[in-house]
Write a structure and sequence with these properties.
By secondary structure, the chain is α/β, with parallel strands linked by helices. The protein folds into two domains: 248 residues, Aspartate Aminotransferase, domain 2 (3-Layer(aba) Sandwich), CATH 3.40.640; 130 residues, Aspartate Aminotransferase, domain 1 (Alpha-Beta Complex). The strands form two sheets. A seven-stranded mixed beta sheet has the order 1-7-6-5-4-2-3, with helices on both faces. It has a five-stranded mixed beta sheet with strand order 8-9-12-11-10, with helices on one face. Helix 5 links the parallel strand 2 and strand 3. The chain is globular and about 75 Å long.
């Protein structure tokens, strides 16, 4: 069955019944016998769909978890209240005091913050490596336990050779964790390319309507047991209302991503025609670093692009004048966004070509002619 068809049927109750699974809010789950209670507690240790206690999710969250698990090709999927919580939850089971963690230098800033503060305070040593690394020899240590990557790179969208990196990491018995938020379980399959854990901030495209906070960690292979134990021990779960909204949003995931990609590519190519623009960053543009790798391994792009404006141009005033592009954190909703970007901030391997006034845009679902007209009007006002 095609993925598009599966999306319409994930979690659907038996007929006669509603098209969408109902919202089930519960803390205590009742039993008629001690035997039933004990059997349930035993089964839940290997079966994540067992309804046993609200801290382990209700049937609403279980339906969402099963959907993401299937899309990612995972053995299990665990839900978290935010994307950053999912990142933290995916890393913590595999490192402890005295261990060493390798992180790609182009990682999402909030992930870098977690690694540089919480993990270091716990006694974990963290080092960063360039995005184009496939041989970890210069960076690995005897105490190295895991590698964290993100594809494409946060804000600048460079694409690493994930299969090659995973092959090298696994030859050293390292766990590989990938932030797959950009592709959101649809455009890219890190587990099929060799990763052990794939993390998605469902706050973005899975929810798709700028009204859900949610994270997920999909896992395959030997890493599954450790991630399951840690998630349950730390009480991580997702509220049923958020699970319902996210699963409902996923019904239109491929259609929305098609429109986001079309709009973003059109904007990227249009920006390239402007004298006020120095560089446009988008993994679908010819010549973009790693574009050939993304074309090889992924099935498309999302709505993100970054624009480096020419020296002397007032980028902030340009953004302030926009009417259809709002200013705000996050992305992946239906709306178009623009916000200042400083990708070299905090990076240990900065790219001098990215210094200057950079703005990250998210192309929403508006008509492309209106988005371009909005940008053109702001450029015109600048002159």
């Amino acid at each position: 069955m095609k993925r598009e068809t599966k999306l319409m049927h994930y979690g659907r109750p038996a007929h006669p019944g509603p098209a969408n699974p109902p919202i089930v809010r519960a803390s205590t789950i009742l039993h008629d016998s001690v035997t039933s209670y004990r059997e349930t507690k035993q089964r839940r240790e290997t079966d994540d769909s067992v309804l046993s206690y609200g801290r382990r999710g209700t049937t609403t969250a279980h339906a969402l978890s099963a959907a993401i698990c299937d899309l990612e090709g995972a053995d299990a999927c665990f839900l978290f209240p935010t994307g950053v919580a999912a990142v933290a939850g995916a890393i913590a089971p595999f490192v402890a005091a005295g261990d060493h963690l390798l992180v790609v230098d182009t990682i999402f800033p909030a992930t870098r913050s977690y690694c540089d503060t919480v993990l270091k305070r716990m006694g974990v040593t963290v080092d960063y490596f360039p995005w184009d690394t496939t041989d970890l020899s210069p960076y690995v240590r005897p105490e190295t336990r895991a590698v964290i990557v993100e594809l494409p790179a946060s804000q600048t969208y460079e694409v690493m050779d994930l299969p090659a990196l995973c092959h090298d990491a696994h030859s050293r018995d390292l766990i590989v964790i990938a932030d797959n938020t950009y592709a959101s379980s649809w455009l890219y399959q890190p587990l099929d390319l060799g990763c052990d854990v794939s993390v998605i901030a469902g706050t973005k495209y899975l929810g798709g309507h700028a009204d859900v906070m949610m994270g997920a960690a999909a896992v395959r292979g030997p890493a599954t047991a450790a991630l399951r134990k840690h998630t349950h021990s730390t009480g991580q779960t997702l509220a049923p209302d958020e699970a319902y909204a996210c699963l409902r949003g996923m019904r239109t995931l491929p259609l929305r991503l098609e429109r986001h990609e079309t709009n973003a590519l059109a904007l990227a190519k249009w920006f390239q025609t402007r004298d006020e623009v120095q560089t446009v960053l988008h993994p679908g543009l010819p010549g973009h670093p790693g574009a050939a790798l993304w074309s090889r391994d992924a099935s498309g792009c999302n709505g993100l692009l970054s624009v480096l404006f020419a020296d002397g141009f007032d980028a902030e005033a340009f953004v302030d004048r926009l009417a259809l592009f709002s200013i705000g954190s996050s992305w992946g909703g239906y709306e178009s966004l623009a916000m200042p970007a400083s990708p070299n901030s905090g990076r240990q391997f900065p790219n001098p070509a990215h210094d200057g006034q950079m703005t990250r845009f998210h192309a929403g679902l508006e008509h492309i002619d209106d988005l371009i007209a909005d940008l053109a009007a702001s450029f015109a006002a600048a002159t």
